[in-house]
Design goal:
535 residues, alpha/beta, 7-stranded mixed β-sheet, 5-stranded antiparallel β-sheet, 17 helices, globular, binds (2E)-2-methylbut-2-enedioic acid
């Protein structure tokens, strides 16, 4: 399956394997990391960012592609919905059918609220489903939420909103119990205790996993729970604009049926944005590990309604996306592969970094090896470095790969690569938006009353870099809390008069600033057709 050039490099990897196993590279100093990031991390490429001209974050930078989305014409203005007709009415409207949206819907329903969940694809078509390696929680005797906080705060460059991170780590053990109670099958030792591993930047083994399909297992369970409750689910239906009321409170959304393009109006006393990430924006031309619908919709809707973004200029490039074969280019190779002992090796067979540095540092280090030092392995799509997977069974014994990372074994096996016997080729892939909408500890946006946000659409929980397994955690902690807060707030709220004036005003501001991108937003689906035409 590998080309002759790749096989020649693999021979060097094999020849050096015992030496590499015996002398693991040391961790970088803080200064070394800073220098590396500045030189090689995509977030530091000044030419890839634009200054926002309008909206709550005017004057701040955003990735070019996101700036274009945020400053495009509101799609709703060309569709003229009739707000006097109501197609759906609920106490709580949840926009998004991933892990955060489902957790929110469940807890909102627990408050007694009438809940409507709309999702532009199907429930579970979400980045939650694609998460592999696990979910963090400090629930072992040698660990504590305080240690978890320190790991995540440092890993995020001391930029996380402390009160959000505090909530994340202190509510983590309860999140694991809640998921277990709903039926998530976490990996356990014969005595029933949870099996936990390290991730990049963790000082304790606190990654709880369901083999390497942890997200799929969590999503399966949450989806069943939503479908088994009296929660109205409307799928293949996208939110294209928030509806506000005369007091500027979130009060529903204009929806579009993705098949018929019919425009529908949903009214609700409170709204939860749980629209997920933005990998399908392919920032800087990177491939992505994200699901098909990850196009930053929530950021666009919230921003136009007046909610502020936080850290919209920082993205996570997962260090190990598949670089070969082409059919799985950009697909996630879970960090758990490195947790289990595989090391990153260059074309010459040299181990060039400690395998469990944080993700931003690891990604930058791989990019340096390929672009700065010329020690990458060339492919039809670019370059990559080896992840020496046979090391896993040398360290942990035969059968470990099949038992702990069966999805990886299957994914590469389909293309004739047996990762028990040969290394796999990896390169960073766009994985996560560290930034998103700013919220308080009740998950509400300070600027738009009754608008709540949960999951990847939130900014500030992780700072400027997220550790592995803290995203599956945040969708549960903040998803549940958003549901509870929105459900309780709905009880004190009367529906007001619906308006889309904010979208009209936003367009006027764009025109006054002379901005015309020639596009409408939100984008809803990525553009892969040869005409380059948006959905
Ligand atoms: O938190 C994540 O992004 C995650 C668990 C990914 C992975 O490497 O498996």
């Amino acid at each position: 399956m590998y080309t002759p050039e790749m096989l020649e490099s693999i021979r060097k990897v094999e020849a050096n394997r015992q030496k590499n196993l015996a002398t693991e590279p040391r961790r970088m100093t803080a200064q070394e990391k800073e220098d590396l990031l500045a030189a090689f991390h995509p977030d530091y490429r000044k030419d890839q960012f634009a200054e926002l001209q309008v909206g709550p974050n005017a004057g701040e930078k955003a990735p070019l592609e996101l700036a274009e989305l945020l400053q495009s014409r509101p799609r709703v203005l060309d569709l003229m919905p009739d707000l006097s007709k109501t197609d759906f009415e609920a106490d709580v409207l949840v926009i998004g059918g991933g892990g955060a949206g489902c957790a929110a819907a469940i807890e909102a329903q627990n408050t007694g609220a009438k809940v409507l969940l709309v999702t532009k694809l199907r429930v579970g078509d979400a980045n939650t489903m694609m998460a592999e390696g696990g979910i963090q929680a400090a629930d072992k005797p040698n660990d504590s939420p305080a240690i978890h906080f320190l790991d995540a705060y440092g890993g995020g460059h001391f930029a996380a909103k402390k009160e959000l991170l505090y909530k994340l780590v202190t509510e983590a053990p309860e999140a694991i119990s809640w998921l277990s109670g709903l039926g998530v099958e976490f990996d356990k030792a014969p005595d029933g205790t949870m099996i936990t591993t390290h991730g990049g930047g963790t000082s304790r083994k606190r990654m709880h996993a369901a083999k390497d399909y942890s997200g799929a297992e969590i999503m399966r369970t949450l989806r069943d729970e939503v479908l088994n409750r009296p929660i109205q689910v409307v799928d293949f239906t996208a939110a294209i604009e928030l509806i506000l009321d005369e007091a500027g409170r979130a009060s529903g959304a204009v929806l579009m049926n993705m098949e018929t393009r019919e425009i529908l109006v949903a009214r609700a006393k409170t709204v939860i944005l749980a629209t997920g990430g933005a990998g399908r924006m392919h920032y800087q031309g990177f491939p992505t590990s994200n699901h098909y619908g990850a196009t930053a919709d929530g950021l666009v809707l919230g921003y136009r309604a007046g909610a502020k973004l936080l850290y919209q200029d920082t993205l996570q490039y997962h260090p190990t996306g598949a670089a070969y074969p082409q059919q799985i280019f950009g697909a996630l190779v879970t960090e758990k592969v490195r947790s289990l002992g595989a090391m990153l090796i260059n074309r010459e067979g040299e181990a060039f970094m400690h395998p469990l540095e944080t993700r931003d540092v690891s990604a930058a280090s791989i990019i340096r090896e390929c672009k700065g030092r010329g020690k990458g392995v060339t492919t039809a799509d670019g370059q990559g470095v080896w992840l020496d997977t046979p090391m896993i069974e040398i360290k942990n014994g035969p059968g470990t790969i099949e038992k702990r990372i069966p999805a990886m074994l299957r994914m590469f096996g389909k293309y004739g690569i047996d990762l028990r016997k040969e290394p796999i080729l990896v390169y960073p892939t766009l994985h996560y938006q560290n930034g998103g909408l700013d919220i308080g500890t009740d998950c509400q946006t300070p600027a738009v009353p009754n608008l709540y946000v949960a999951g990847e659409a939130v900014g500030g929980i992780h700072g400027r870099n997220r550790l592995m397994g803290n995203s599956l955690l945040d969708i549960i902690v903040f998803g549940r809390d958003a549901g509870r807060s929105a459900g309780n707030r709905a009880r004190e709220t009367e529906l007001g008069t619906p308006t889309l004036d904010h979208a009209r005003r936003y367009q006027e501001t764009l025109e006054a600033a002379g901005i015309d991108t020639g596009k409408v937003s939100p984008r809803l689906l990525p553009t892969y057709n040869s005409m380059g035409k948006d959905f």
